[in-house]
Amino acid sequence: MPPLLLGVGLAFWGWQTGVPLVGLAMALVLEARTLVHSRWDLQRADFNRVSDFSTVLLVLTGVYQFVANDSARAMTGLIQWLPLLLFPVLACQLYSVAGGVETAVFFWSQRTRPDTTTRVDLGPPYFVLSLLSASAANAPRTFYGGLVVLAAWALWSVRGRSPLWRWILAVLVAVGIGWAGHLGLAAAQRVVERRAQALFLSWMRRDPDPSRTATSLGEIGELKLSDRIVMRVERGGGTRVPLLLRQASYNAYHAPAWIAVDGGFTAVLPEADGATWLLRRDATTDARLTISAYLARGRGLLALPSGAARLDDLMVVSLARSRLGAVRVDEGLGLVTFTAEFARHGSDESPPTAGDVRVPPRETEAITQVAAELDLAGRPPAEAIARVRQYFRERFRYTRYLGAARPGRTALEDFLLTTRAGHCEYFATATTLLLRASGVPARYTVGYAVHQWSPVEHRWVVRARDAHAWASAWVGGAWVDVDTTPASWIDEEAEAPSLWGSINDLWEWGSFAFARWRWSERQDRLTGNLGWLLIPLTMLLVWRLWARRRVAAAAPPASAPPPVSRAGDDSEFYAVERRLGELGFARAPDVSLARWLDAILAAAPPALATAPLVELLALHYRHRFDPAGLPAAERRRLSEAAAAWLAAHPPAPASASAAAP
Question: What domain range includes position 200?
């Protein structure tokens, strides 16, 4: 890989994922290897330990992400942190003499093999992984440009011999195709979403389900039987339980759906601290409660008490409020905990319009009949509400199980005139339309009912099955909650306590505590300590590796120390041996000088003077192996005799040498 490419890739990853200091520190650690002149002598067992350490970090991070986030965000978060989790393995490779990592390190089944397995260089795949993890941060304005620069840098190092202009043209074409593909996929996604939504709405209008009234928001029917805890409530001053927390209100009924007409959202700006949001600046509050709620992918509707005017400690980026009182988080954390201040007899919705007293033509006959039976015409709003409450309390019952409506009747008409049994959506819809028929403006409202106290958590818990629907009526210049669903609905929805349910509640409580720490903005002792738990493990690993034997980095051959000289290395007989080899009498490496010379003497070549060779070999052996060495006179004799023999036997021409036996 080109120098610095790996470090720049890590710095780019840190920038894209919001941890620039972490990415820069990792880059400096890797690139500093060129300044360090020693390397660790790590064996396979050492790499096994480092790989296991990274695996433990990977598992812990995965558990953490899936507990603190939904599955999609958890997977994205895990991918973002992969370069950090696998960093120890790469660092050990770059700071070791191995030059690579054996494949057996990554497979438990191969670790028992005694032989050395194939070594792989983790640098290139780690560089690609860094780019992939950076893309998971979803920063389209800056990511693509950085990707192009880094990819071109990497490709430049392995370019072929083609002209430069061809290489540049190929890169530009690839960049253009990639950008066009990105725009095309985004446009295709928008088209598919619009077509799917239109198809779904047309299906609802053409073939409504007569067995249930469905709101266009909430899907209450699917959640009714779920014990999953979606919110936690801590009661403050002036609050009484049970209470209703509203998510949204609707003002137009088109069976089987309620629709919010003119319910557009307006952005709400935070106060100077960034965590206080005023929904109504001129309101006077007399009650408060603390709510902890999960937000899917950091977005969703907040469930708030009617009359909510101020939200404190709400750590979100953006907030919006509709004319019908719904409050929506557009960008925030996976879990929010905030305090809501509200007026118990106030309202945060817009005043009624003509649409709030309209009864759909399909339901007019049944609604008019019941309204006449209750004598609601001309009654004051409070009295009309009281009569409707009494009517449903005395003559109706709650049930989740309903059959199809009779032919020729709507589901609501069958509920009012025949079955007189249904779930909260039936009661809320009927109440809203009956109040409208009596001249009282009313809206359909959905949210949650708070009624269950948790002795384990010491707070009120709200489960998915507590999703509820009720009516809101305009009385005395404010919207008030009118819940006519029989109180038995809570017992009907609740399941008998079980051991598994208790275990599940404990698990959810632990998950909540973990998520609250995960998304908390406070730097308390728990936050500070948990963030440093991995440091002792990392220090232990570094100490174990540092204690290993380190060796000097490989030096160029020219700087290697000269070999140690041996006695007799200056013997002139070596020149005689080389000349004999040139004349066609080369010695094999496994044959001693004495045996080699005996073979030459036995051959008795006429062109060679062999008698001096015997004396020369004897002098050479004494010079080479005699601890006392050769006397000066004999040393001169070896030198002179060898020179004389070499002079008498000059090198043969190439052709003659080749023809020699």
Answer: 160-207
**Dihedral over Cα of 612, 618, 620, 622: its sign:** negative
Rounded Cα–Cα distance for residues 584 and 634 (Å): 29
For 234-278, what is each residue's pLDDT tens digit?
887 667 777 899 988 898 888 778 888 887 888 889 988 888 999
Domain count for the chain: 4
Q: Is there a contact between 469 and 482 (Cβ–Cβ < 8 Å)?
A: no
Domain membership of residue 408 (yes or no) is: yes
Angle between helical axes of 44-68 and 499-519 (0-180°, round to 10): 100
Residues contacting 90, CB < 8 A, separation 6+: 30, 122, 123, 126
pTM equals: 0.51
Answer for the pair 376, 434: CB distance below 8 angstroms, yes or no.
yes
Q: What is the DSSP string of 158-202?
A: T--SS-HHHHHHHHHHHHHHHHHHHHHHHHHHHHHHHHHHHHHHH
* Alpha carbon distance, N-terminus to C-terminus of the chain: 54
Task: Give the residue carrying structure tokens 């209450």.
Answer: 220
Do the domain assignments include residue 134? yes
Cβ-based burial of 482 (10 A; exposed 0-12, middle 13-18, buried ≥19): buried
**Residue 494 DSSP SS3:** coil
Is 646 inside any structural domain? yes
Q: What angle do CA 247, 252, 255 make, to 5 degrees?
A: 100
